[in-house]
Design goal:
single chain, 435 residues, alpha/beta, Rossmann fold, four-stranded parallel β-sheet, 16 helices
Length: 435
């Protein structure tokens, strides 16, 4: 009994350490959640009196719920089992059938199993309970530790996003209506400023764009606005005009001397891109916060000049070669190459403005395709039944069709325009004027 007293005292000392989800041997009834009813053998009531309880066995390694046992007589937690007496463990089927396996004991953490005749002692039961309690404690603490770590990680992530957003919001805002000029601006300023392009959908027709509330908000907060000009983005000019304070602008059409009503697709002209980068670089060098713009400007201008040299190389070999076009989207590039667009200008302008060309212009354009120009440029963003008819005629006449868009695809202006130059070069190779 001295040993029992020592163990009980030691147990009472260490018990709180293991009560993080551990087995609780108190005098409360076991709850109806698949838990077990355990009574001491020496003064256990008759099996028949336990039949209405209907409790089943439980796996005490389940750490998500407590395991309570009713000990007959209301003994203390450890005293109930430290007498090292036999303990009777009744499962639901045994309690409901007192004539069947009255002395058999159900499984508890591997101590015994259903139908096993050997009864566990109180010490065996205690050791298994403590082991399962420790396992449950470790698992629960691991889950809580993981949950806390997850919450901390989410908090750090949100704080980081907030800081990044704050830093981004503090940078100068440059707004462009056209994706080509916006992409060039982004390549030029790098991390020194935020650049927002208002038209980014490659399937959208910039001619039909209507300003949105978001467009107005961006223009309102801009420190520099890039306009294409020549009537192409009048909606953006109007937003600039309604600002409460003036803002610096770069109008590419004005830089190139192109008036409203003329071909506005200046982003297909490498010369216009070069002039734009030079002007914007000069503007930003006068401002603070753009100390690294000079090397980026030099690198970008080097790539643009290489693109212009490719166009001039085609001009030296293929000047005057006839080509066709459904619209004027890439006429500036074709002019740089010295190629002759034979399609009536009135038809090209009509398609670009969304109106029907004359019957005579359409007839002439279709007849010209029968004469096998080097290729047909087709702006797929202004496709209509009429332009589809022109494309179909070109295919029947075995004229290569080069598809282009007004809204830039990709994130690099030089790569995008160089892809168009390459397609033209390949068509001219078939024509025989370049190797």
């Amino acid at each position: 009994m001295a040993n029992v007293a020592v163990v009980e005292l030691l147990g009472n000392r260490v018990r709180p350490v293991f009560e993080f989800g551990c087995v609780d041997l108190d005098d409360g009834p076991a709850g109806p959640t698949g838990q077990m009813v355990v009574v001491r053998v020496d003064d256990a009531p008759a099996v028949e009196t336990l039949a209405p309880v209907g409790h089943d066995h439980v796996d005490v390694t389940r750490f998500d719920e407590s395991f309570q046992l009713r000990v007959h007589g209301g003994e203390g937690d450890l005293a109930a089992v430290l007498h090292n007496e036999l303990v009777q463990i009744l499962s639901a089927d045994e309690a409901s059938n007192p004539t069947k396996n009255a002395n058999h004991f159900t499984a508890l953490c591997g101590i015994s199993c259903r139908g096993h005749d050997e009864e566990p002692t109180g010490a065996d039961l205690l050791s298994r309970m403590v082991l399962s309690s420790i396992i449950g404690m470790i698992l629960k603490k691991a889950l809580i530790t993981g949950a806390v770590a997850f919450v901390i990680a989410v908090f750090v992530f949100m704080v980081t996003l907030a800081l990044v957003g704050t830093r981004a919001a503090s940078k100068p805002l440059i707004v462009s209506g056209v994706s080509q000029w916006g992409t060039l601006a982004r390549q030029l300023v790098g991390p020194d400023a935020r650049v927002v392009t208002l038209i980014t959908d490659p399937n959208a027709d910039p001619h039909q764009h209507e300003a949105t509330v978001a467009d107005a908000a961006n223009v309102s907060g801009a420190s520099l606005v890039v306009l294409n000009g020549a009537g192409y983005d009048t909606w953006l000019s109007q937003l600039v005009a309604t600002r409460s304070s003036p803002v610096a602008t770069i109008n590419v059409a004005s830089l190139m001397g192109v008036a409203t009503g003329k071909n506005p697709h200046l982003f297909y002209d490498p010369r216009a891109a070069i002039r734009f980068v030079e002007t914007m670089s000069s503007e930003l060098r006068r401002r603070s916060g753009f100390a690294t713009i000079v090397p980026r400007s030099k690198a970008l201008l080097a790539n643009l000049n290489a693109l212009q040299r490719s166009a001039l190389a085609i001009r030296r070999s293929c000047a005057g070669v006839p080509v066709a076009a459904t619209e004027d989207v890439s006429t500036y590039l074709l002019d740089d190459m010295g190629l002759t667009v034979v399609t009536p200008e009135s038809l090209r302008l009509a398609v670009g403005n969304g109106v029907d060309p004359s019957v005579s212009d359409l007839a002439l354009a279709l007849d010209q395709l029968s004469q096998h120009p080097a290729f047909l440029i087709d702006n797929i963003q202004t496709a209509t039944p009429l332009t589809n008819e022109i494309v179909a005629k070109a295919r029947r006449s075995r004229v290569p069709v080069i598809k282009v868009t007004e809204t830039m695809t990709g994130t690099n202006y030089v790569s995008w325009l160089d892809g168009v130059v390459h397609s033209i070069h390949q068509a001219l190779v078939k024509e025989g004027c370049v190797k």
